[in-house]
Specification:
This protein has 203 residues and is α/β, with parallel strands linked by helices. Helices cover 24% and strands 27% of the residues. About 3% of the residues have low confidence.
């Protein structure tokens, strides 16, 4: 019996960050500018190399002045470029905790950590927020073009377009856990705002 025809969204690519699972539709175009992690990886084999290098240097400095046991949190980890780079370089002296609230994207994140042998990293299907509870995550069409890492978890007055119409109707979303950084009860936390619109923490 033959299988039904169906489109392919996720593919395996060889990038400068290692072998990665990406969505080939991860692209949006605005004012003739194309953006999306998948698009950038397919176009250049890397994602925001200068930003990745900057945070890696911060982690190394954290180790230099505070010793081993550095712990980094990747909030809004997407498919895990930052998490992979951090975990690879922190092998033997640090760990990474990656959070991603989009269930489909989370699957790629977890797979990327495993396929790159980042065993000092953990992925959580969880949103980071001000409180502990649950949040309804809107569901973009992963078979159609869109910058999925740009998805706003809540609709705002100036919600950034991902390149496709996304419904914020709670009935069409999926509930996932939400936690706060405080609920992790970490002894010390330093945060840095990255240009990828996700918060990164290290301690």
């Amino acid at each position: 019996m033959s299988l039904p025809e169906r489109p392919i969204a996720f593919v395996l690519v060889a990038s400068n960050h290692g072998t990665m699972i990406i969505n080939r539709n991860d692209v949006a175009v605005q004012d003739d500018f194309a953006y999306g992690v998948g698009h950038q990886l397919l176009s250049t084999s890397s994602f925001d190399a200068s930003e990745v290098s900057f945070v890696v240097e911060l982690l190394a400095l954290r180790r230099r002045y505070f010793g081993d046991g550095v712990f980094a949190i990747d909030g809004g980890a997407n498919i895990g470029v930052h998490s992979i780079e951090w975990a690879r370089r922190m092998y033997g002296w640090g760990n990474v905790l990656s959070f991603e609230a989009q269930e489909i994207v989370y699957y790629a994140l977890a797979g990327n950590l495993a396929i790159n042998n980042c065993l000092n990293a953990r992925a959580k299907l969880t949103a980071l927020g001000e409180s502990v509870g649950r949040i309804i995550i809107p569901q973009p069409d992963y078979y159609s073009p869109g910058s999925f890492g740009s998805l706003e978890l809540r609709e705002l007055e100036n919600t950034l377009s991902v390149g496709q119409d996304v419904s914020y109707d709670p009935k069409k979303g999926v509930a996932v856990p939400m936690i706060s950084i405080d609920s992790l009860e970490l002894e010390r936390v330093v945060s840095s705002r990255s240009t990828s619109r996700a918060w990164k923490w290290m301690c």
